[in-house]
Amino acid sequence: MRHSAALIVLATLVAAPAAPAAEEPPGFWTTPAIEGYGKIHPLPQGAYQPDPKQTYRIVFGMTAASKSPEEVNPAIERVARTVNLYASAGVPLNHLKFVAVAYGQATALALNDAQYKAAYGVANPNLPVIARLRKAGVDVAVCGQAVAEHKYQYEWVDPSLTLALSAITTITTLEHQGYNLMPL
Prior knowledge:
Layout: H1 2-15, E1 56-62, H2 74-88, E2 96-102, H3 113-120, H4 127-135, E3 139-143, H5 144-149, E4 162-164, H6 167-176, E5 180-183
Parallel strand pairs: 1-2, 1-5, 2-3, 3-4
């Protein structure tokens, strides 16, 4: 009997209409440093706020692929979000020493427009966010070994990216220099 009652309650909860989502007020999501990318919701009272006087060194290992070629790579979007979070907390951009290196499934984000269009039929949607990240001081790199493994020519890498020897040497070298690894 108790089992049947529990099933009835569960069925009622599952069948109940969901409460409508509250509409977000204007300005709820912002992109304070990387305009249009990496949206954040400021939370000045949140715990573990970055210290604006400190310098932060992060190397991002970007391996995620986009869901579709027309979409910005989720890993590069997370890098933009990270910059925006630190900027929102008052950390000056010159206190952010960030390097984002693409490899594995993320390698295609480094292709120039012509090669990206040849491969996927659309312009590379990652290049605008990479340009904004560069302007904010982020070094966006691609693993030279991954470029070769994907059978891309090195000339196909957009000139806005740094062609690194490898992701492995980039990450380990930067970790020896005090950078923290953030795998994406």
